[in-house]
């Protein structure tokens, strides 16, 4: 929610402060300056001190940065860029910390659906932010978006600090039998004291994953940051209409992630190797994307030839 609200609030903000599209793009990108810095560091830190601590720190960090956004914007562009980068630093540890916690709690046979459920929470957070941001802007002004969502993060942190645990062994609320059962189903090798970065980076599959993730995030974050502006400025939708159209991809992703996770776990539980399942899912997704390009691309071409561009 905290990340996506800027894509809506940036429109009244740019109107108030006279920012051109280049400046808007700079502001939107500043989040990722910090986000890039803490991806690997967040995973290493989670291994050392526990995912609960790292995720809690990240949430309270980015919530404070979110709440400070209106103040930073009034002080000037450099202050806003720094605050947005600080927000990215906090959010950068979230994914590594979540994966660390799931690896300690969830058996291999259930990880696909568990990861899908957790990740769908991020997509539903985008849906929530896109849905409620226009309402808050119309009623209370754009600063209220950042104050509201920043406050929600601090409330969440209180509950998280009291109820969450990095591993089953730390949780006093489950019995010894339950702890034994969970730990017995978690496959884990010997602790790694030194990460073999040279060996990891020498493997072609690693670079294939990096390239795939780069391309995926390029499209995802372009849509996340610019789609509301496109609907508003090019198609002339108001903020509410723009946000309603913008939630559709994230709502679809939340649903499809859980369906895909359930299918993957079912195949693994029936004896299919994790590698085979992963390759099958990726092949199905890539082929589907290729087919959709043909379906919509040819139809769009015919429309443009007849009616021209909007």
Automatic annotation (TrEMBL):
Membrane topology: Multi-pass membrane protein
MF term (GO), any: transmembrane transporter activity
GO cellular component: membrane
InterPro entries registered for this protein in UniProt: MFS (IPR011701), MFS_dom (IPR020846), MFS_Na/Anion_cotransporter (IPR050382), MFS_trans_sf (IPR036259)
Domain Major facilitator superfamily (MFS) profile stretches: 1-310
Primary location recorded for the protein, binned into one broad class: membrane
Alphabetically ordered keywords of this record: Membrane, Transmembrane, Transmembrane helix
PROSITE patterns tied to this protein: MFS (PS50850)
Subcellular location: Membrane
Keyword Repeat in annotation: no
TM spans (from-to): 26-46, 53-73, 79-102, 114-138, 144-162, 206-227, 247-268, 280-305
Role noted for this protein: Probable anion transporter.
Family: Belongs to the major facilitator superfamily. Sodium/anion cotransporter (TC 2.A.1.14) family.
Protein name, as recorded: Major facilitator superfamily (MFS) profile domain-containing protein
Organism: Triticum turgidum subsp. durum (Durum wheat)
